[in-house]
Amino acid sequence: MLDVTARVFTAFGHGAALALLAVTVAEAPAE
Q1: End-to-end CA distance of the chain, in Å?
Q2: Angstrom distance (rounded) from CA 8 to CA 1
Q3: Residue 2 exposure: Cα atoms within 13 Å on the Cβ side
């Protein structure tokens, strides 16, 4: 169960990082 939780957390973490990066890149030209 701990392994599954770790995998979900890692996947979510990567997704959040990619989303933040995408937002940063999208916002940069508008500045």
Answers
A1: 45
A2: 11
A3: 0
Measured between alpha carbons, how far is 26 from 28 in angstroms, rounded to an integer?
A: 6
Cα maximum dimension of the chain: 45
Residue 22 CB coordination number (10 Å) = 10
Q: What is the pLDDT along the chain (31 residues), one digit of tens a residue?
A: 678 888 888 888 888 888 988 988 888 776 6
3-state helix, strand, coil in the chain (%, to 5): 95, 0, 5
